[in-house]
Amino acid sequence: MKKIIRNLGVHFELYIGAVFLSVTTLIVIMNVFTRYFLRFTFTWAEEIAVGCFVWTIFLGLANAYKTGGLIGVELLTNLVPEKGRPVIVFITSLIVSTISGTMFLFSFKYVMGSTKITAALELSYKYIYSSMVFSFALITLYSLYFLEQSFRKMVTGADIKFVVEDNLESDIVEEEQTTMSTNKESD
């Protein structure tokens, strides 16, 4: 049970994104069905589908960065020899943290200044736009983590993985092994 809870924490962007994508898919299917077979549409369906899809995109972006799934960063890192990778990761993490931190601030100001509301539901667009704030905050945190890890590798030469997910999952495995060995010793 503890592993499941920890795993949810490691992959929370994917789980939340999956819920939003599922809602988007169900609403679109429902709206297509009602439009073509029942000859009416729900006025609110498109607004919810678009909002959920935007959240899915931004959560996916944060998770892709966290797991090393962005092609540009991965390609650049793989072009450099093993000894130079911490330097490249440090530089790219510094650039990404600066840009994503700036985007976090701009998106936060944009969301706070937004007065636009949706036509059918009359909800504030702040709920949709806040996906940018959340995503750039996560990317900034992850890039600062990578920055710290790459600096540590440059200074100490320790073997460090540059993917947040791998480090968290290895912590889970180590904790389980420790728990299992403690349980065996007590038996």
TrEMBL record:
For this UniProt entry, what is the primary localization, expressed as one broad class? membrane
The UniProt record lists the keyword NADP: no
Against InterPro entries, the record matches this protein to:
DctQ (IPR055348), TRAP_DctQ (IPR007387)
Keywords from the UniProt entry: Cell inner membrane, Cell membrane, Membrane, Transmembrane, Transmembrane helix, Transport
**Pfam families listed in its UniProt record:** DctQ (PF04290)
Q: Which GO terms describe its cellular component?
A: plasma membrane
Task: List where in the cell it is found.
Answer: Cell inner membrane
| Topological category with respect to the lipid bilayer | Multi-pass membrane protein
* Keyword Cell inner membrane listed: yes
Signal peptide range in chain numbering:
none
Q: Which residues cross the membrane?
A: 12-33, 48-65, 86-107, 127-147
* Domain Tripartite ATP-independent periplasmic transporters DctQ component: residue ranges: 25-151
Q: Which family does it belong to?
A: Belongs to the TRAP transporter small permease family.
Protein name according to UniProt = TRAP transporter small permease
